[in-house]
């Protein structure tokens, strides 16, 4: 086997490249109000350098408020009520052309809530107990270069009658800016 790239890829060329970049994760989380027609959340890339996002991961709740006999309970109905539109705040570039259901782009996806009554016991009078949340983990490929100091925006719609929490993580490479 001929190793053509061995002469091109050596310490003298790789170390300066490696020293100018490193892995980073940028978190975003929030609570989307019940019936929200579009709540905006944002996180900042910061001035440390540009950020090459490679993957998006995250989770969300599937809650609804159910009233039986005058008593309102928050249940985990297993239905995805959240839809989001991802935007590069620098220039307002739409990264998703429309609102995408969270279960189509976030992994591990749905998570159980400790406040939902049917997480603690089966409540047949309120609703059937939702199935267990999936535990598979396949991050969504989303390769996009955000400039230094840019905001990552997410507009989220919630069609549930309960407030719903979500968490996202943008994983990628920080490319440090070099002062010349």
Throw out a few tags for this protein.
elongated; five-stranded mixed β-sheet; 3 helices; Jelly Rolls; 180 residues; 12 strands; 47% strand
Question: Would you mind describing this structure in some detail?
Answer:
With 180 residues, this protein is mainly β. It has one domain (23-176): Sandwich (Jelly Rolls). Helix content is 9%, strand content 47%. The protein has three helices and twelve strands. The protein has helices at residues 11-19, 102-105, 117-120, and strands spanning 21-32, 39-44, 49-60, 63-68, 71-76, 82-88, 93-94, 100-101, 108-110, 140-146, 151-158, 164-176. The longest helix has 9 residues, at 11-19. The model has no long low-confidence stretch (mean pLDDT 84).
Strand content: over 45%
Instruction: Report the average pLDDT across residues.
Output: 84
Count of domains: 1
Query: How helical, in percent, are the residues?
Result: under 10%
Indicate the structural class: mainly beta
Distance between the termini: 41 Å
Here the CATH topology equals Jelly Rolls
What is the tally of helical segments?
A: 3
Q: Please name the CATH architecture.
A: Sandwich
Poorly predicted parts? none
CATH classification class:
Mainly Beta
Succession of helices and strands: HEEEEEEEEHEHEEE
SS elements, strand count: 12
> Mind describing the biggest β-sheet?
5 strands, mixed
Rg calculated over all Cα atoms: 21 Å
Quick structural gist:
This protein has 180 residues and is mostly beta strands. The chain contains 3 helices and 12 strands, in the order αββββββββαβαβββ. The strands form 3 sheets. Strands 1, 3, 9, 10 and 12 form a 5-stranded mixed sheet that branches.
